[in-house]
Amino acid sequence: MNPEALLEGLDEDQRRAAGSLLGPVCLLAGAGTGKTRAITHRIAYGVATGAYPPNRVMALTFTTRAAGELRSRLRTLGAAGVSARTFHSAALAQLSYFWPQTVGGTLPRVLDSKARLLAQAAEAAHVAVDTAVLRDLAAEIEWRKVSGLSLEAYEDAAEKRALPQGIDAMRATAVQRSYEQIKDSRRQLDFEDVLLATIGMIEEEERIAQQVRAQYRFFVVDEYQDVSPLQEQLLDSWLGDRRDVCVVGDASQTIYTFAGADADYLLDFGKKHPGAEVIRLERNYRSDPGVLAVANRLMRDRPGALTLTPTRSGAEGRAVDIAAYPDELSEARSVADDILARIEAGESASEIAVLFRINSQSAALETALAERGVSATVRGTGRFFDLREVKEAMMMLRAAALTLSNEPLFKTVSDVLRSLGWTQDAPEARGALRDRWESLDTIMTMAEQCPPGTTTAGFVDELTERQAAQHEPTRDAVTLATLHSAKGLEWDTVYLVGLTEGYLPISYAKTPQAIEEERRLLYVGVTRARRQLRLSWAQTAPHRAVARTRSRFLEELGTSIEDAAPTRVG
Fold first, then answer.
1. CA distance linking residue 126 with residue 375, whole number of Å
2. What is the pTM of this model?
3. What are the b/e assignments for 437-474, b being 16+ CB within 10 Å?
4. pLDDT tens across 10-35, in order?
């Protein structure tokens, strides 16, 4: 391919990025600014001009889907020989190749899941746990390892972390110590061990370091704001004393700090790599001006925030709307009505998304859409009725309907859910235990919304009907997704629901740092919209006397939204 043809169609900043082939380069790329286009054309231009032998380029990202997209685009641009992989897959390939030479024998088995071994470790450490706590402890292991902490250092740090209910720092550390001992005795590795072992192999074996660095000479790292200390250490090992690395990221989209992501590596790239070229991509090609006005206002004066400049003129009418509803059921029904009207007017269902903070918020939306015959697909999680705790609750409610037929519905459902771990108040921590509570709490809400006199059998029948309705085949379907799972996607019309204190920011976000992460989550949601953005909240919480207040972020945005769009109260 003609090298200069690869630069055609790029804007001034993208062209500058594509032409900066050597030395450290940092692309600060805002949402919708064409960052993937910039980096793929940069790599392809380097290959086409002869600056990059394709087999010596490594493009790194964080998900298999993103790596696949990079490979597809690079093939189209004539750079099929470039390796585009996740950190884990690249490390695993190297470890598998060099392990027989350094340690001997075959590479130990890599665990698909920590759950079973962790359960055995908890039993050996005499710590009682359930499935939800095990998932949260697995997340603690991952956070400890990607943060580069020893067990001793972790125990100190855990004193300030929100651990699963009934687990203190000493117990969490004891289970992890037992987990490591059992894993090592069985010659097994987890995913974090793969990175650690690869780093150790490169840093301790000069011969291997030379081979690895001879293989890959030029590095590109996408979504660099999500890099963890462990991944940064691996990148340093791959680079050695070389400087040909290009990183791409947006500090305003850092939403995984709870998993070890650290945007400081992006923001401080110029300090670590003196003389680095820093290029800002701020021309937004995705969203209408009204949407970008909200996004810019939300992140104004935040560290590393970019100012998105619209390139679209925008359709007639106002792009942003805000609405308040008396309760969540009214909110869900109004959103569903609005979506149905859009589809009947010719809008494609696949170009519409409803985004929310936590998985359980999907239940009311799924039901409202199903009642109107609108197909929906839930992204990033199992459908509500496929969740294990929901299945358990339905099974127990069916049994209760046979034996407690004369008991009030509220009491029966409350007793069943309490036996599964539900309480009136939510756990004050993130994680699987909180997710489980949210799911059970949703069932409690459904029970309370039933007409007076509804029996347990009638309630179970209603749940079964809802379950069946939500499993209809979907083709052209509305997307329901959490804000985390929506990252990297975009739709013409986006509804952001449940924008109240307790949901966004979530109730367990207590520190200023945690609140800022919630702000960035909202920013990610806002910037998913191309043409229309609908923000809404409900004024009362289900089965609780305390009224909800709208999110502090809406309060803060206030006039900027209301000047751009009318406020509706449904």
1. 47
2. 0.81
3. bbbbbbbbbbbeeeeeebbbeebbeebeebbeebeeeb
4. 999 999 999 999 989 999 999 999 99
